[in-house]
Amino acid sequence: MNIGMAGTLAVYLLTATLFLCVDFLYLRWFARDFLQQQLGPLLRPQVNLAAALGVYLLFAAGLVFFAIRPAIAEESAARALLYGALFGFFTYATYDLTNLATLKGWPTAVALVDIAWGTALSAAVSWITFLLTSRWILGR
Predict the structure, then answer these.
(1) Residues 73-114: pLDDT tens digits?
(2) CA distances in angstroms from 62 to 45, 68, 84, 86, 135, listed in the order given
(3) Of 27, 19, 26, which Cα lies nearest the Cα of 57?
(4) Contact 129, 68 (CB under 8 A)
(5) What are the domain boundaries of the chain?
(6) Which of 41, 53, 60, 126 has the most neighbouring CB atoms within 10 Å?
(7) Which whole-number Å values give the CA distances from 85 to 39, 105, 119, in the listed order?
């Protein structure tokens, strides 16, 4: 099924909002102490908001393009979940394994937790976006 340009924009905005909100909650309340303990001296005192916003906007676009739109076209929630998980796994693993390969002192524990989180977050956001899109945009 083709959702058109307006539908794609709505899906993108929903994806970006969900991803940002859930990841913010995770980073702020669940992972903060772990990351501070593991990465303390590497962390900035203040997040570079422009760079963070860029990551979220690009990541949401990737989820829409590689996971959510194909799932909508096939009308498959399972496809959204699987493609979202794969996109999250490959992107987070690329980041974390590159850090393990190139940065002195990048903790293996951070890489493993981050890859698992990115996989789960991407799968969940893709699946939820698909379900909400099916109901709100496609009227199913």
Answers:
(1) 999 999 999 999 999 999 999 999 999 999 999 999 999 999
(2) 29, 9, 9, 11, 22
(3) 19
(4) yes
(5) 4-136
(6) 126
(7) 25, 28, 5
